[in-house]
Amino acid sequence: MRITNVKITPIAIPDVPLANTKGVHPSVFLRAIIEVETDTGLTGLGEAYGAARTLKGLQTVAPTLEGLDPYNLRDLRQRVETALPEGGGVNAPTALADHKVVDVVYSAFEIALLDIRGKEIDRPLYDLLGGAVRKTIPFGGYLFYKFAKQDLTFGPDIMGEVMTPDALIEQAKEFSAKYGFKSWKLKGGVLHPDLEVETMLKLRETFPTHGLRIDPMGAWSPKTALKVIKDLGGVEGGVLEYLEDPCRGMDAMAELSAQTDMPLATNLVVVEFDEIIEAVKKDAVQIVLSDHHYWRGATGAIHLGEMCRAANLGVSMHSNSHLGISLAAMCHVAAATPNLTYDCDTHYPWSAKEIIKGGRPTFQNGTLQVPEGPGLGVELDHEAVAQLHDLYNTAMVQDRDDTDEMLKYIPDYVRKVPRW
Ligand code: GKR
Ligand code: MG
């Protein structure tokens, strides 16, 4: 079996102004849909970031995959590295971490090749990753402070302005009623830390048994982070399951870690395998967030789990704005990662569109069942892709720059990380 053709379709999906420490989401988020065809008539699917540098990387590599054997992932890696000799990162300069274009592009195509292989042998993708240890995947509700959407050209708002602790609790209640989430992650680093503490305490009061996390994405100094930990009740009997990226950079995380037993998680200071070693040496983090979009695909995410097990680190799962192909891949990876013991993050409730047949999967009590069809277990709705591709062409947004977008809401906004 050989690859005969690769199609990359950039799409734009209406987004809402979700705030974070470096700004706010633009009016659309971008994804790239990947279709890889074989001489045996199979098509493998993938979903990747759609911003300019990723898209260019995908488009550069695509023609070089002709003739590739979908079982040869080493050859895939080789072809990606040969086609992208400059390497480099894919994220906007205002982002807080960068991901290597070779890792992101490899990851995207790997999922499509695994999808093909699953389809060929009529087995779900998780079976190619060593088998499922769970088939019901728990997700946490991802809560955001947000502005009311000003420009409704590309799609409606979800929930209006949420800029106070009380409004955030209403958001959680709405998500709870709709999706049944059993844990919450708050995107912090937006309001003053005292207000974010108040929000977390109110979440605890309203949802006494939910797991709780906050992720200020490097917005706090170690001193501020220590105060937040104390205000949230400390480690034993406190409010938090873990604290995600409180401080910016490996050394600041290590400085904090030396002063607290609160488990620190990250998707900013450990995004490549080498960084796991540095993080362990410095005892900078205790939990690493997995993500098949940059941890060298689904097989890389499984390796990450194994490395974390060996290093006595926990594993959780990171997300970005995404649609159903990514959601399916996340489920397969979560199914096959034994030590992924925390509820997975997902941005899924923050959009209303879908590009897989059958529409949007339904969360039951905050969980999804891993798709059981062959491969990823999802099929592409070509009409839906075409509509979102049209939006990509009309929206004229080619990159994600949350800091630039913030100026529309706060004209004198200055990005500052850490801020407190
Ligand atoms: O959607 O604004 C966002 C998030 O901040 C996202 O970009 C992060 O990558 O969710 C992510 C995180 O855990 O840091
Ligand atoms: Mg994070």
Automatic annotation (TrEMBL):
Lyase recorded as keyword: yes
Pathway: Carbohydrate acid metabolism; D-glucarate degradation; 2,5-dioxopentanoate from D-glucarate: step 1/2
Superkingdom to which the source organism belongs: Bacteria
Organism field: Octadecabacter temperatus
Top class in the EC scheme: lyase
UniProt cross-references to PANTHER family, sorted A to Z: D-GALACTONATE DEHYDRATASE-RELATED, GLUCARATE DEHYDRATASE
Record keywords: Lyase
Molecular function per GO: glucarate dehydratase activity
EC number: 4.2.1.40
Catalytic activity: D-glucarate = 5-dehydro-4-deoxy-D-glucarate + H2O
InterPro entries on file: DgoD-like (IPR034593), Enolase-like_C_sf (IPR036849), Enolase-like_N (IPR029017), Enolase_C-like (IPR029065), Mandelate_racemase_C (IPR013342), Mandelate_racemase_N_dom (IPR013341)
Protein name: glucarate dehydratase
Pfam families membership: MR_MLE_C, MR_MLE_N
